[in-house]
């Protein structure tokens, strides 16, 4: 089992939990897919797209549970990034963790990703 990660505002994730499905953030809607990162990409994604933003969560997802709707596509720096071309069913979520800002202004990731 592989794991992919979604960084999301806590309020947006809470709405997804209420609905039972995550349909994406505004950037996902604009691009036509839900952006994910690997463990090795998540820190850079947070720094590039969520710099200084608090009140975020990190969502760990079983990539095998996403099926063929998950595609690995070339993105930043030529690296392959996971993109989901379907809503995220919450049954695929393994865990959700807080993603607080540290004293240095960078996000503090769970030890599993450090």
TrEMBL record:
SUPFAM superfamilies the record matches: ADP-ribosylation
InterPro entries: DUF952
Pfam families: DUF952 (PF06108)
Top-level lineage group: Bacteria
Protein name stated in the entry: Uncharacterized protein (DUF952 family)
Annotated organism of origin: Prosthecomicrobium pneumaticum
């Amino acid at each position: 089992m592989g794991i992919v990660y979604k960084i999301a505002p806590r309020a947006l994730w809470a709405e997804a939990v209420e609905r039972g499905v995550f349909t994406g953030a505004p950037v996902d809607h604009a691009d036509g897919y839900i952006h994910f990162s690997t463990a090795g990409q998540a820190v850079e994604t947070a720094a590039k797209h969520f710099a200084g933003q608090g009140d975020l969560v990190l969502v760990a997802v079983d990539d095998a549970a996403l099926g063929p709707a998950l595609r690995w596509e070339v993105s930043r720096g030529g690296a392959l990034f996971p993109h989901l071309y379907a809503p995220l069913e919450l049954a695929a979520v393994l865990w959700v963790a807080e993603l607080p800002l540290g004293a240095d202004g960078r996000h503090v990731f769970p030890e599993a990703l450090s």
